Each structure stands twice: as C-alpha cells, then as structure tokens.
Amino acid sequence: MAYGITRAMSKFLDVPRRNPLLEKVLRFIWVPAVVLLGIVLLFEIKSPLVGDFYWLFALLTILGTLVALRHYRPARTLLFATAPFVLYKLVEMVLEDGSGEMPKRFDAFMDSTQGFVMIWVITFMFISRSQKKQLEKEELLREEEAKAKRLIEAQNMQLEHLVAERTVALTNQAQELQATLTELRTTQAQLVQSEKMASLGELTAGIAHEIQNPLNFVNNFADVSAELLTELEEEQAKPDRDLELEAELLADLKQNLIKISQHGGRAASIVRGMLEHSRTSSGERTATNLNALADEYLRLAYHGLRAKDKTFNATLNPDFDPSLPPVAVISQDLGRVLLNLLNNAFYAVRQRQQTGEAGYAPTVSISTRNLGKEVEIRVRDNGAGIPAAVRAKIFQPFFTTKPTGEGTGLGLSLSYDIITQGHGGTLVVESEEGKGTEFVISFPINQVG
Hints:
Blueprint: H1 2-13, H2 15-18, H3 20-27, H4 30-43, H5 49-68, H6 73-95, H7 107-237, H8 243-278, E1 286-288, H9 290-308, E2 315-319, E3 327-329, H10 331-353, E4 363-370, E5 374-381, H11 388-391, H12 411-422, E6 426-432, E7 436-444, H13 445-448
Parallel strand pairs: 2-4
Antiparallel strand pairs: 1-3, 4-5, 5-7, 6-7
C-alpha cells in the first residue's frame, strides 16, 4: 500500500521530471518493508508496532518528498494536507499500549481526530488536483505563447532577411538609376550641344550670305576712295589747283568713309550675333531691340536655306511694331528660339513647294506687338500645317515630324523651355492642315523689362 501511494504521488507530482534522484529513492521504498518483514519472520517478532513504524517511515518519506518539491504549488498543498495525518499517526503511536491497542478513554478523541484528519486530507487533495489542472492549463498556455513567440521570431527573422535582401536590391537599383540619371544628363547636355551646333550650322550659311553684302560695300567704297585719293593727289600736284574740286573730292572721301564704317559695323554686328548664338548662355538679360533681332534672324534663316537650295525662293513678310521699346531679354536664347521657329517655317513651305502644287507661293511672316503688359512675337508660314494627331506632341523632347537624319526633335522642346522657364512666358502653336502653322510667343514686359 505504501508503494502504491508513493507511485501515485510520484505520477501526480511528475517527480521523474522534477527530481529524478528523488524518483529513484521512491522506487525502492519497498526495500525497507521486505527487510523489516524478514527480520520479523527471522526473530519471530509478534509486536504490532513493527507495522506502525514502517508506516511512520513511509509517511516521513512522503513528507520529505513533498518538502523537496515545495516549489511546486500542488506539492505544497499536499504537504499541508498530510502534515496533520502524520501528526495524528505520531500521537496514535504514543498513546497505544504495548499490545498495539488504544486505551478506551482516548477512543472518542482519536475517532473524532481521525475523521477530521481524513476530511482535511481529502479536501486538500481535491484542492491540489484543481491546482495541478490550473497549472497544466497555464503551462499549456505558456507553451502555446512560447510556440507563438518562436513562430513570430522565425517570421521576424525571415522578414528581416527579406528586408535586408530587398534593401540591397533597392540600393543596387538606386545606384543603377543614379548612374543612368548621370548618363542621361550627360547625354542630354551632349544633345543640347548637338542641337545648338546644328542650329549654328544653319545660321552659318545665312551669315555667309548676309555678311557678303556689307563686305561688298566696304570693298567697293574702298576702291572708289582709292581712286578719289589718286585724283586728289593729281589735282594737288598741278600748279593751278582747283580748290572747289579738291573740296568735292574730300567730301566724297568723307562720305565713303562713313559708308565703309556703317557697313563694317553691320558685318561686325552679324559676327557678334553669331558668336552670341554659339556661346553658352550667361542667363543675364540685356535691353534688346526685338524688331531688329527678329528681322536679322528672319534673313539669316532664309539665306541659310537658300545656301542649301539655290532654287528656293520665298516671300518674307516682316511686320514689326514701331512702338515696341527695348526689352530686357536673354538675347542669345531668344535668338535660338526665333532661328528654330523660322527654320521650321522655311522647311515647311519648301516641303509644300516641292509637291508641285499649282499657284503655291511660299510665304513666311514674322511680327511683333506691344500689348501693353506683354510682348507678342508671331512666326507664321503657309506650309502644309501640322496634323491634329501630332500637334500635342511637338514640344515633347525627341519628337519630330521630319524624316530620320533631318531633325533631332529637341529644337521645339528647348525653345519651349527657354520661353516658359527662362522668360516666364508662353509658346503655343496654331495650325490648320493645308493652310499653314503659326507659333505665338508671349511674355510679360514687367518680368523682362
């Protein structure tokens, strides 16, 4: 019975897991009983106290086990439950006589005490059982929480790994994008320079023709002036000098020098304009005669195209507002815009002329208007017009309606940026297929003047 009680207690308190050494001791609790039984049989001992002593030993062993497991709440409760029972057994052993009988005067007390002790033991056993179930639930809950925590930690580690991989990928992408952006900016700068050089090439042909006129005048007046000087020297060498003729010759020389100075200045102005067009814009605004600027680029664009095609002729219609005052603009940038628009206009009328349309007369117009608070410049041609399907795209970079090799698609895009961003104005296009195209530039005078 003692062995059965200890085995049940060991299982109930999970002694093998909580205290393996104590479990080994409990497994051999039957050994003292066998030894004691052998002694009783060997020496023929008849005293009933032998059994009581073994029970006392068994109870003390149980108490020792419960004390060793006191950190476990059900074990503490069982310890509290069995302590009165052990005390009862000690009192019983003390009060029994030599034959193992309880004196009758103590029967009632001991019976009452035994009943109370049994109720006490049973009550606290139920409490201990309830505590064990509660602890098992708590332990199960802790295990589930620990499992969930391990799962969360595993997921966190996986997420951290994924985030690290994604971070590396994004970093690499960012570096690639930065390298691509740098390359694009370099390419953009090269394309802008290429477009500027292309427009400079268009300008050069016109300049060569325009500069020829003042140079011819300079050469002609220089030759005439040389003849006048020779005639003056001959007259001065005569004994009978004609002072009136000498005065006329000097007056003609003076007039020729004035003409030479004027046409030399014109040639210098054309060269200066070419240099301004070719150099990088400083962004500084200077007071500019827009009428003179527009007229100059109209003729340069026209003669530039004629240098490529001697058979091409067109009517030029300049219409400039005489009330327009000098306006502070970035002249080289605005000159690039006008040259680009005029080149496109002459290209459009030439393309229509080459179709052989009967009665067609190529015409390009440029006009300026003082609108009070705004300056307006219009460039119009009577070419074939821009189709409605592509009209919204013409200011997009790299979009061009010209055949491959004849346009970069940057001219109108750069022109749009120069007007809208550089001068705070607008650049719009109005076109009708079969009738022509008109570009309208406008910018506030109070921002640029």
